Amino acid sequence: MNRNALRLAICATLLALTGAACASGDATDSDAGAPQTSATGTASPGAGPTITIKLIAFTPTDLQLAAGGTVTWRQDDVATHTVTSGRVEQAGGTATAKPDGKFDSGNITKGQTFQFSFAEPGAYPFYCAIHPATMTGVITAT
After folding, report:
1. CA atoms within a 13 Å half-sphere pointing along the CA-CB vector of 16
2. pLDDT by residue (tens digit) across 70-123?
3. How many CB atoms lie within 10 A of CB 115?
4. Which DSSP string do the residues of 25-57 spell out, in sequence order?
5. 116: closest CA among 133, 98, 104?
6. What does the DSSP assignment read for 89-129?
7. Which residues are 94's β-sheet partners?
8. What SS3 class is residue 134?
9. Strand, helix or coil at 6?
10. pLDDT at 47
11. What's the mean per-residue pLDDT of the chain?
């Protein structure tokens, strides 16, 4: 089974297990409907590279940009997701999220965006806190 087919099978299983819970969102969330902006608030949508969130995946998963650049994540999926900085450790069939506190979108739903400016050079791993086993990526600022 190739990697894409395996990813699709895992995603389908996760969707079946979580059902509508991921897509429903929480109407009482204080951040529901709030605009998601970069930590510095200096970039407008479309000013830098965009990562699409769709079919329980980030596309692309790895992205390089110049330090100081801003990335926009565009949520095009029916399920709720997050963009959370940190690593995911996988061992023994479990995924353990290790947030590092550099950025976190909170829950974002279809049609929303999240931006973050990468001021310093370095590698910035990120993941979806709702789907850490299947949704990870890395931004490399040079």
Report:
1. 6
2. 999 999 999 999 999 999 999 998 999 999 999 999 999 999 999 999 999 999
3. 26
4. --TT-TTTTPPP--SS----TTSS-EEEE-SS-
5. 104
6. EEETTEEEEEEEEEEE--SB-TT-EEEEEE-S-EEEEEE-S
7. 91
8. coil
9. helix
10. 67
11. 77
pLDDT at 78: 94
- State how far the Cα of 22 lies from the Cα of 116, in Å rounded to an integer: 24
CB 101 within 8 A of CB 119: no
Host H or E run for residue 92? none
Count structural domains, the chain. Answer: 1
The domain containing residue 63 runs over which residues? 3-141
Say if residue 17's pLDDT is above 80. no
Residue 142 vs residues 68, 69, 86, 123: alpha-carbon distances, Å = 9, 10, 18, 9
Instruction: Supply the CATH number for residue 93's domain.
Output: 2.60.40.420
Name the residue among 127, 31, 131 with its Cα closest to residue 80.
131
d(Cα 130, Cα 25) in Å, to the nearest integer? 11
Residue 6 has pLDDT above 60, yes or no: no
Q: Report percent pLDDT > 90 for the chain.
A: 65
Helix (H) or strand (E) holding 18: helix 3-18
pLDDT exceeds cutoff 80 at 30: no
